[in-house]
């Protein structure tokens, strides 16, 4: 893993996790088909991460949309919360978390949870996200670290 801010070793490790089978891609390792909401998943991720911790957790996960806006929104927020539930196990203190959301009534709750765990939380619409798509991303940086853990 790249220690945060260490530009002299620009080689990272990319681990992709998906419910679907992902075709091999050079430079990346995949854990699939694997469900992020399965309580065993963080252990499986840990086994693959060099150094046992990630610097960044980046999620473009989404449920299959039903078209019922509130239901789709709730499902996506609970996916984000599942992933957030894993951060104490897999993310380095100081690390970054990015997750996709569809705006809705629970966005505030997710934002509040993120603010408890990260020093800075922003809502962003990356250039790569289509204008007509309602997706927006929470970008949370400077992870405070596992509660009760002794920082190294
Ligand atoms: C919008 S697509 C992401 C596409 C990806 N960024 C790409 O460029 O190929 C959403 C993905 O989230 C995955 N997904 C949804 N729920 C999941 C879960 N519980 N665990 C793991 N992956 C999940 C879906 O299988 C789907 O591939
Ligand atoms: C979406 O639907 C496809 C096809 O039915 C299925 O394989 C996949 O697991 C579904 N994804 C989610 C996130 O439920």
From TrEMBL:
Keywords: Methyltransferase, rRNA processing, S-adenosyl-L-methionine, Transferase
Stored InterPro entries: RNA_methyltr_RlmE (IPR050082), RNA_MeTrfase_FtsJ_dom (IPR002877), rRNA-MeTfrase_E (IPR015507), SAM-dependent_MTases_sf (IPR029063)
Pfam families: FtsJ
SUPFAM superfamilies for this protein: S-adenosyl-L-methionine-dependent methyltransferases
Nucleus in keyword set: no
Any Gene Ontology CC annotation: mitochondrion
GO molecular function annotations of the record: rRNA (uridine-2'-O-)-methyltransferase activity
Source taxon at top rank: Eukaryota
Domain Ribosomal RNA methyltransferase FtsJ intervals: 12-142
Active-site positions on this chain: 100 (proton acceptor)
Signal peptide from the UniProt entry: none
Keyword NAD found: no
PANTHER family documented for this protein: RIBOSOMAL RNA METHYLTRANSFERASE (PTHR10920), RRNA METHYLTRANSFERASE 2, MITOCHONDRIAL (PTHR10920:SF18)
Family that this chain belongs to: Belongs to the class I-like SAM-binding methyltransferase superfamily. RNA methyltransferase RlmE family.
Protein name per its UniProtKB record: rRNA methyltransferase 2, mitochondrial
């Amino acid at each position: 893993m790249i220690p945060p801010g260490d530009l002299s070793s620009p080689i990272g490790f990319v681990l992709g996790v998906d419910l679907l089978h992902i075709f091999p891609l050079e430079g990346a390792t995949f854990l699939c088909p694997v469900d992020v909401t399965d309580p065993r998943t963080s252990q499986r991720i840990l086994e693959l991460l060099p150094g046992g911790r990630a610097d960044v957790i980046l999620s473009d996960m989404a449920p299959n949309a039903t078209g019922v806006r509130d239901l789709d929104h709730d499902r996506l927020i609970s996916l984000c919360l599942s992933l957030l539930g894993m951060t104490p196990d897999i993310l380095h203190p100081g690390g970054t978390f990015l997750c996709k959301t569809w705006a809705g009534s629970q966005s505030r709750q997710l934002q509040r949870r993120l603010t408890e765990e990260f020093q800075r939380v922003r809502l962003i619409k990356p250039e790569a996200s289509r204008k007509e798509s309602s997706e927006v991303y929470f970008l949370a940086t400077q992870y405070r670290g596992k509660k009760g853990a002794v920082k190294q």
